[in-house]
Write a structure and sequence with these properties.
Elements (H helix, E strand, L loop, with lengths): L1 H28 L2 E4 L2 E3 L2 E3 L5 E4 L4 E5 L2 E9 L1 E2 L9 E4 L4 E2 L9 E8 L5 E7 L4 E5 L5 E6 L7 E4 L4 E5 L4 E5 L6 E6 L4 E7 L4 E6 L12 E7 L4 E6 L8 E7 L2 E6 L4 E6 L3 E2 L7 E2 L4 H51 L1
Antiparallel strand pairs: 1-7, 1-24, 2-3, 4-5, 5-6, 6-8, 6-9, 10-11, 11-12, 12-13, 14-15, 15-16, 16-17, 17-26, 18-19, 19-20, 20-21, 21-25, 22-23, 23-24
Amino acid sequence: MFAYFRSSLVRERRYLGLFIGFILCFLCACTEQVKMDITGSNENLPTGPSAITWDGKNLLIAKDGLIVFIDNIDTATAGSIYKYEGHYFLNRQPITVSSQEKPSYISGIAWQKTSSNGGYIWIADNSNRRLMQITPQGEVIRKIAYSKFFVDDMTFDGETLWIADSKREKIFRISLEDGSILEQFQSPVKTPTALAWDGKQLYIAGLKDLDSPSYSSDNIRIVKLSPQTGKVTEEIPPSRYLSQPTGMVWIEGKLWIADRNYGGIIITSDWGSPSEDTKDYRIATLPVSSKKIQQVEKKAEKQDIDEAKRAAEEARQAAEEAKKAAEAAKKAFELQQKK
């Protein structure tokens, strides 16, 4: 009898697993999407957005050095037998980010909300290796040069910026003041190319294998990471339409993911299955106070070395003068003896 109940329980669990898998597949198959062939106001945004963010009303989409504001977005069901691909409206004139050096390429964009229901746009210009804080009208507030990381995407957590760096396979949290690195994590996704913040945790999307010739969802991984524990909490099933994510934003329980190959944005659920990955991805970083202490110690050490060098040089010069004085005294004594 016990064996019978146990086998029944195993079958029920198996059926439950199959049912959950079916539901996930169904949800992925019914993923929402909207194509991003934006043309209007004599401005053109080619397919394949390079970065996206949300200001509470508009979806901000970047491509090269252009930022477009769109609203009234009507999505379509990906894979539908109907050819409708969704539509939207340009809310206002786009912003053009220019540079006297190299043409700008916006690889990351984030919205910093202020208490007055306004806010600022943070952009990462990888061509000129600079972060820029600008107003929604395009006025530049601040520029911060960076060299210690490469920005594939970024997001704002209310106080600081998070950076996805595919070249170093890391996730960085940086200061708004000077771009200094406050925290760093080894990326759970081999090649992180998209990043989002839901108010508590990070979503990281990217490629499992950068060298894979396959452009399909099989090579995509999306995870939810807790910055507090450094561990992956959930594995998010990727839409079968994703193949090369370039930007991501969390909006009210859904992930909006820009895809370079698809040329549009895929909207999918933000929940998945509990992760079996138990690794702590945090990388030990010295706190700012410790860094300042080290800098002071190094400065003091350098001053001590400089002082020692100066003292040694003075002693050498005194020895040479003493030697010359001794030689002069010897010559004077010899002359006296001759007389």
